[in-house]
Amino acid sequence: MTVERGTIRLESLVKSYGRVTALDGVDLEVRAGELVTLVGPSGSGKSTILRLIAGLEQPDSGRVLLDGRDVSRIPPQRRAVAMVFQDYALYPHLTVRGNLMFGLRVRRVPRAEAERRARAAAERLGIADLLDRYPDQMSGGQRQRVALARALLREPSVYLLDEPMASLDAPLRFATRAELVALHRELGTTTIYVTHDQTEAMTLGDRVVVLDNGRVRQVGPPQEVYDRPADTFVARFLGNPPMNLVPGGGVLGGDAGVTIGVRPEDLALDEDGPVEATVEVVEHLGSEALLRTRCDDGTPLIVRAGPRPAVRPGDRVRLRADPQRLHRFDAESGRRR
Q1: Would you state the pLDDT for residue 1?
Q2: pLDDT mean over 69-91
Q3: Among 69, 199, 254, 310, which is least packed, fewest CB within 10 Å?
């Protein structure tokens, strides 16, 4: 059976560091041309997965298949993979041109061809005017583009991006996300992107992989994972602010065997609503406001409201939940019902 170039398959991957288990039986398949984001808290195993795919480390057990071939014991230089690190890993003593040409020269590409390809990659990433600068003469965003351009020059079947925008400020991250999506669409190369930022995970990925303690909790299109979280961990982790979770249902209805969840945007101020609460905090965020309320039975509920809600701390309000947007989870296992 022919396997498309850029297909990745992880089978029962286990990786430990002493007594710490970084990956505990990870199974994952990435289709050719996909952009998949890995998201989860620190220590969930995101970067470890990238390092195993890149060949920087070997699994204790399980297999890494690239293009249908088991590469678990094959060294990094023999894998058609390019990796971009969080710290960019540029050579400080080389100019941008030197950084871009270094790998090509190591692979014995003729100098004129290496120069041509380096300039073409720099133009594609909008850094052609920086070719004679050194890394310490550039901003974080410019260094990130150099690292991406260097990865482009390898012409791999897979790109691995390990939190490449972690050190950028918010406006630059916003702009760079759009550029990354456009670049991926242009190249069509399989890409795995690691981030702890759920906004990046949701906006970049064709599919999102949510990890926790070395295990895959859920895989799916971003909106599907958000709308139908597989368990209470995903419900809490994906969403800012997180989903309101009420053991037993309480003011949201239910029974002792379930936990009822509702997203803050699926709760509304309604003078005829069945839930009574007191507003404790109003967080004005410009385009919206978050109301932190507490019900009469002590249950805290966060409500996402419009930009200028006519309420203040201490006000009594009534709330109504969208019945079509209530989530039911098993009280013991946390799994979706």
Answers
A1: 58
A2: 87
A3: 310
